[in-house]
Each structure stands twice: as C-alpha cells, then as structure tokens.
Write a structure and sequence with these properties.
Radius of gyration: 27 Å
Number of strands: 7
CATH superfamily of the largest domain: von Willebrand factor, type A domain
Order of helices and strands: HEHEHEEHHEHEHEH
Number of domains: 2
Distance between the termini: 19 Å
Length: 261
C-alpha cells in the first residue's frame, strides 16, 4: 500500500554479498508429532484405508474414527536462502535547536523508511548516530530522546559514519542507506567544506543512497542543504529534502525513495 500510494519503485539490490537466512519449510509427513501439526486429510485417509481393509467401513453409515496409528503429522526441514544484506545508518543533529517537534518528525519519517526498506530486504540492520559538536553511536531509544546543547559540527557525524561503513559494510557485500536529519545549521563554512569532501570522496561512492532531510527550525540557519545542492547536485546517490512540518513527511519519503536505489 505504501509503495502504491507513493508510487515507489521496487529496489534492485546491488552488490554480490548475501546473508544465508534460515527458513522452516513443511515438506514431509511423519507418524509422530504435536497435535497442532496434525495433517487432517492424511490422517483421515489412513483411517479410511484401515477400516476398508478390516471390513468395518459401512458406506451406508460412513463414520471414520482415526486411532493413534492412523495419525499423520506435518514435518519440516530447515532450508537456507540467500538474501541481500542491507543496513540503514540514521544520523541526527541533537543540538539545542533540534527540539521535540523536530525529533517527532524524524521519528515519523524513519518509521516509514524502515517500513518500505523492510519490504525490499529480508535482512536489514540499523545503526544510529547522534551529533552536536561531537558524534557518537547510540541505540534507537537514545537516538530519539537525547537532547544536547551547544554548537554543531556535522563533519563529526560524517567521519563516524565513514568509519562504520569502511570497517563493517563493504559496498560489494552490503546495500547501504544513510539518512541524515538536521536543521541545516553548521558551525562554520570550513566544516561544511570538510563535510562535502567526506561525502564526495568517502561516503557517496560506497552507498546506495545518502539522504539529507532538513527539518524546519526557527533557530537553524538552513544553509547546509543549499551547500549540498550547489556542490553535489550531480551525484546520483545524494538526495535532499526540505521537511517543513509533519505534513511534509509524505513528500519527503517519496523524494528519498522514489529513485528505487
């Protein structure tokens, strides 16, 4: 429904790497097993065969009563199926200008991003990075609840993101999605230049998509998205989106995922 409503194309996973996922497949019949797995049709057939052979079956009164040795049960075997590896790295500015309203927008958007990517990949990992003047990896709960104060160095998050990708998610084996949410306020132009270098040379060549979502804030300058669009506009793996309110989440998801990468 999400894909149809937003007209999202199916994703064609890249890379040669797979994870072997284990599945239970019911493919055989055994004479023993739990009642919850009893095969009613096979059990009835065995009981009918027994009564006919014994001469106790009466077509005028076709009552068939299975006994213990008639019972048949479904059984399974474990099979392994190759599935493409995929990881989402969420990054968010948690400086003082990113308030509860902005984080709620991020939470809503991340939920629907997760929902779509889970429909495309059976094996999906998530990593979370927060930053103000420094960046650190956290769990999902801390990602949405942490609030710091002070300045913002976006490059600190991009450096950590780069390190995680290089150490753990080789682009030949993994489909990598990075989503960064901020109000667009960075400490200095020099740090923005550093961010552009990291993106251009280290992150963008290694990912399926790098999505930057700029959440509207009365305290943020909003400059960062302009710098990305002016300097990296021809990079296919970069997508930017302005998220002015909760109502804009719908369009933002379509902007991020509408290329089917």
């Amino acid at each position: 429904m999400l894909g149809e409503e937003l007209e999202l194309p199916k994703i064609k996973p890249k890379g040669s790497g797979f994870v072997m996922a284990r599945h239970n497949k019911y493919s055989s019949i055994h004479m023993q097993g739990p009642e919850s797995l009893k095969h009613f049709k096979r059990t009835f057939r065995e009981a009918l065969k027994r009564e006919i052979a014994a001469g106790t079956y009466d077509p005028k009164n076709p009552v068939v009563l299975p006994v213990k040795r008639d019972k048949r049960f479904k059984s399974w075997k474990i099979t392994e199926k190759p599935e493409h590896n995929a990881v989402i790295l969420y990054q968010m500015d948690v400086s003082g200008s990113m308030g509860d309203e902005q984080k709620e927008i991020v939470r809503m958007e991340a939920f629907w991003i997760d929902t779509w990517l889970k429909s495309q990949y059976n094996a999906l990992e998530r990593r979370y990075i927060i930053h103000d003047a420094a960046a650190k990896e956290v769990n999902e709960e801390a990602f949405y609840k942490t609030r710091e104060s002070g300045g913002t160095l976006i490059s600190s998050a991009y450096k950590l993101c780069q390190q995680i990708i290089e150490a753990e998610y080789c682009s030949q084996n993994w489909n990598v999605y990075v989503f960064h949410f901020s109000d667009g306020d960075n400490w200095s132009g020099e740090d923005t230049k550093h961010c552009l270098e990291i993106l251009k040379n280290q992150i963008l060549p290694r990912v399926n998509l790098f999505c930057y979502g700029q959440v509207e804030s009365r305290y943020g300058s909003g400059q960062f998205i302009k710098d990305l669009e002016e300097n990296l506009q021809n990079r296919d793996s970069l997508v930017t989106s302005r998220i002015e309110s909760k109502e804009a989440v719908y369009a933002s998801i379509k902007e991020f995922l509408g290329k089917g990468r």
